[in-house]
Specification:
It contains six helices and five strands; from the N terminus they run ααβαβββαααβ. It is an alpha/beta fold. It has a single domain, classed as Rossmann fold (3-Layer(aba) Sandwich). The longest helix is centred in the N-terminal third of the chain and has 33 residues. The radius of gyration is 18 Å and the shape is globular.
């Protein structure tokens, strides 16, 4: 029994070590590919990425299990673009780029992003959808997703600004219903603690 316990403990330690190494590789890859260090909000973006990676680890245990999973990310965000000659690296818009979907791509998953904004990020499948509207997800087949992530949408400043408080309960209940319809029987809900993801709640 002792040997069996020791073997399981060793496996756990190996998974933890691998997870940490994989998380670091993902962070380094995203930082290099998307020039995160140039952003005024680099610290907040990296914190956000860490939160998403931790959420995936908490959900799947071994981050290698994410590979091949088709995961729906509601309110995924959009690729920030310069407007009127403004320096995009000085904008909070970089914080709300589609970091979860990009992480999933790095991990070998098959993410599908949903956002109210137009998204021209070519690295993953995405749709411009107002998730607050009834029937917004009707085009997606039943039980077609291995995972569901929507925590970003409820913490996004645009959601708070555009959806009256009295309507938020309805939107949330509608999303819960769609989540039940769209997830496979063994599908997972990926939970992120949103209170720490809003730039308004953090120091730059």
């Amino acid at each position: 029994m002792q040997n069996e316990f020791t073997a399981r403990e060793a496996d756990y330690e190996n998974v933890e070590t691998y997870n940490e190494e994989l998380k670091q590789r993902v962070i380094e890859s995203l930082t290099d590919r998307y020039g995160i260090e140039r952003s005024l909000y680099a610290g907040i973006i990296l914190n956000r990425i860490n939160k998403f990676l931790t959420a995936l680890q908490n959900t799947y245990g071994d981050l290698r299990q994410v590979k091949g999973k088709r995961i729906l990310d509601i309110g995924c965000g959009k690729k920030a673009v310069e407007e009127d000659g403004s320096d995009i690296d000085q904008s909070t818009e970089r914080v709300f780029e589609p970091w979860m979907c990009r992480i999933l791509v790095e991990l070998g998953a098959d993410p599908v992003g949903i956002d109210i904004e137009v998204n021209d990020d070519p690295s993953f499948e995405h749709y411009q959808i107002d998730a607050a509207l009834p029937g917004a997800f009707a085009f997606l087949p039943d039980h077609s997703f291995d995972g569901w992530h929507d925590m970003s949408v409820f913490g996004h400043p645009k959601f708070v600004k555009n959806i009256p408080r009295r309507e938020r309960g309805r939107v949330y209940e509608n999303m819960k219903s769609e989540m039940t319809r769209l997830l496979k029987s063994n599908g997972m809900i990926i939970q992120t603690h949103i209170e720490s993801l809003n730039p308004a709640n953090q120091n730059v």
